[in-house]
Amino acid sequence: MANILTPPPFKAFTLALIQLGKIGANKQENLHHARKMILQAARGEGSSKKPDIIVLPECFNSPYGHVHFPVYAEKIGYTPGSPYNVAKSTSESVKMLSAAAKEVKAWLIGGSIPERDVEDDDKVYNTCTVYNPEGDLVAMHRKVHLFDIDIPGKIKFKESETLTGGTTTNFFDTDFARIGLGICYDVRFPELAMIAARKGCHVLIYPGAFNMTTGPLHWELLQRSRAVDNQVFFSMCSPARDLSAGYHAWGHSMVVDPMAKVLKEAQDGEEIIYVDIDPKVFHEARAGIPVTLQRRFDVYADVSQQ
Ligand SMILES: NC(=O)CCC(=O)C(=O)O
């Protein structure tokens, strides 16, 4: 179990984002393709180094849409902090992700999948699972804020038709950083990122899938905002755009540094991007603009304490 008071020392590492394409109706094919891309990302072709951590996008094993979530949902039954036996899991996605992380000996943020509650069949979550290089499932995040929007003439989407929101904030420790988790629409709620940063996270990674309406407006703005207001690295990993799918993802997976500079950005097709994360930028941002030391908790409450 991670110790809240002592994050690991922040060391340089390489991050790979898989902007996954070919996410269709056939779950087996989705899993097969995701695995192939994880192995490809792990080879680090075109990067200066092999990645230490690999990230998949939101909803990588199923088409994205509220009607699909219950159909593709799998039971995981993981409780953070408790031992979990992947071999006994009934989730084929968890088994694939665990085996892939072990095979490539890298950390893996397994995008998200629809997850059915083990005890309550009526509850389905949008869930991100995380694996260490030994293939152990070590962390999980259930999307807290469900994507329910209605912009007339543009986009209407209601995750809450079939999904239940998560109730916890989540992070995990590696040997190189403390990493906070969120999923897509969670980025619009600064509280989640702020709590993670106040709990010592150096990097926040959110699998996501913005769309053709809100993507051009807010995808970059929100990531740069969360990065600069918390002085952390911030990254979102999207599926590739597929105009034959029911939901047209914006793509543009990216990594932003603590000064809000976009370090790397994908286009809209299938692509793997690699970014070397340098803790120097993190420390320089915090030393030069010391907002982390200037907070006025005498004037407003420290939300991380709630
Ligand atoms: N998958 C999502 O949560 C989409 C969020 C989104 O597009 C937004 O504008 O917010």
Automatic annotation (TrEMBL):
It comes from Gymnopilus junonius. Pfam families: CN_hydrolase. One of its GO terms (cellular component) is mitochondrion. One of its GO terms (molecular function) is omega-amidase activity. Belongs to the carbon-nitrogen hydrolase superfamily. NIT1/NIT2 family. PANTHER family: NITRILASE-RELATED, OMEGA-AMIDASE NIT2. Keywords: Hydrolase. Residues 13-279 form the CN hydrolase domain. GO terms for biological process: asparagine metabolic process; glutamine metabolic process; oxaloacetate metabolic process. It comes from the Eukaryota. Signal peptide: none annotated. This is Carbon-nitrogen hydrolase. SUPFAM superfamilies: Carbon-nitrogen hydrolase. InterPro entries: C-N_Hydrolase, C-N_Hydrolase_sf, Nit1/2_C-N_Hydrolase, UPF0012_CS.
